[in-house]
Each structure stands twice: as structure tokens, then as C-alpha cells.
Amino acid sequence: QVQLVESGGGLVQPGGSLRLSCAASGSINGITAMAWYRQAPGKQRELVARISRFGRLDYLPSVKGRFTVSRNNAMSTVSLQMNSLQPEDTAVYYCNAENRGSYWGQGTQVTVSS
Known about the structure:
By secondary structure, the chain is mainly β. It has strands spanning 2-7, 10-12, 18-26, 33-39, 46-52, 57-59, 67-71, 77-82, 91-98, 102-104, 108-112.
């Protein structure tokens, strides 16, 4: 079992920045990848960024060059630095960990609005 707790969401103006963090606890030794997903109202949840234990990075095309995912060596924390935020980035952002299954945090709201 892996427990995930996100922090760092909030309200930001277009063009602004936010940093999301996710702290993992429990069976973290078996985590093979961590990721950030988001879900906007009326839309399906989508993968935003993913980083594997071996450092492989995957990004949603619309956030490439604006968002950066990073983790610590122990795979106990994963962060998402979000720059040049746009209204279409507004969503609930979820932390995800893969460890013989998929574990989710409770989500944190990101709202981009003037």
C-alpha cells in the first residue's frame, strides 16, 4: 500500500506559476514510477507528466516546455513545477504512484483565472 498526499494547488493568474508536491509513504521501495494527472470539469482524467524510477520522462504535449516533473532518489516525493499557466490548465491535479498497482492522492485544485 502507498499513501499519497498532494499540496501546492491554488488560484493563479494566467502566465503565473505554481509548484505541486506529493509525499508518498508506505511501500515506497516498490514504486516504479510517479505521475501527475488532471481532470477538468466534464472531461476525462489525463496524464500530465510521469517520471520513472530510472528517470524516463513523459509529458502531455500541451504542457511540454512549461511543466517540469521531478522526484527525489527515494521516490518518496514528486513535484510538478508549472510555469506559464493558462486557463485551460485549470483542473484537479492528482498524484499517482505505480507499485504493482496504481495509487492515487486526494487531488488538489489548480485554478488559472484573472
